[in-house]
Amino acid sequence: MAISAEHIRTLHKYEKTILSVLERQMSRYAWVPLEQLITSTGFAESDVNYRLARLIEWGMVRFNPVPYDGYALVFGGYDTLALASLTRKGTISALGVQLGEGKESVVYEALGLGPVAIKFHRVGGRSFNSARVNREYMADGHCPWLVASKLSAEREYKALVALHPKVSVPLPIAQNRHTVVMSLIQGANLNRCILEAPAAVLDDILENVRIAYKEGMIHSDLSEYNILMEDGKCVLIDWPQWIDTAHPNAEVTLNRDIDNILTYFKRKYQLSYDREDAIQCVTG
């Protein structure tokens, strides 16, 4: 993580307040003015400067002196706020090892009532620019990366709630800011597996795509990299880009998902499956 568990445990109440104020004010500012932080917290300027220096050192806040002294919450600080809230609610009690990392997220094992997974959405850099262009749920105009990441997490959590258990997806447990807590899947990505019965797995994947389609949802980014295999069964993960089946691009999007899967099984297992039959299987 960008921030150590020790720093989260020892965070002063003034530092938590400053992080929370930054979170709120970043809907208005790319860089929150120092004067705004002083006014919003009610703390003395010396206290604010001291706490900000610590937060910057710990990788939770960033400083920019131009054109004024401004501060921005970064992912280390946003992680801290989310973890503090989830811990306070009893959702998680400890953070474990990193399980995986993608272009827009990082996933860790955590401890709740039992082992769980916590996904931190990180929509930033090139992926942020792509998300702004390609995803209709992204707001126009000023939309900080932290806000975009929160929207991404909310959208994924909504999909998991709607689909589980009808579709083989992780059990959704909680969502806070840019994080989604879900059941821990004990399995590897499809692309890392050697399947004993690839045809049966392909049928299983298409059946889950069909049920999701019946529930009004298309994954929109389906590939061998976001399907896990657990006890011989597929689990479809990474749902923030889903679209409604009534969307104008629904047909094109569904066809692309299916093409991705059929191409993978053809390439790795020389398994031929008629494209039109697969589409009919899902939509019929």
Task: Walk me through the structure.
Helix content is 45%, strand content 20%. It has 10 helices and 13 strands. The strands form 4 sheets. Strands 4-5-6-8-7 form a 5-stranded antiparallel sheet, with helices on both faces. Helix 8 (198-214) crosses helix 10 (275-283). It is elongated, with a radius of gyration of 21 Å.
Q: Could you write a compact summary of the structure shown?
A:
The chain is an alpha+beta fold and 284 residues long.
In percent, how much strand structure appears in the residues? 15-25%
Indicate the CATH class of the largest domain.
Answer: Mainly Alpha
The CATH superfamily name of the largest domain is Transferase(Phosphotransferase) domain 1
Largest sheet: 5 strands, antiparallel
Rounded Rg: 21 Å
> Which sequence of strands runs across the widest sheet?
4-5-6-8-7
What name does the CATH topology of the largest domain carry?
Transferase(Phosphotransferase), domain 1
Tell me what the CATH architecture of the largest domain is. Answer: Orthogonal Bundle
- Structural category: alpha+beta
**Uncertain parts:** none
Can you tell me the overall shape?
elongated
* Average residue-wise pLDDT: 91
Number of DSSP helical runs:
10
**How many beta strands in the DSSP annotation?**
13
- Tell me the count of domains: 3
N to C succession of SSEs: HHEHHEEHEEEHHEEEHEEEEHH
Helix fraction, binned, reads: 40-55%
Euclidean distance between termini CA atoms? 45 Å
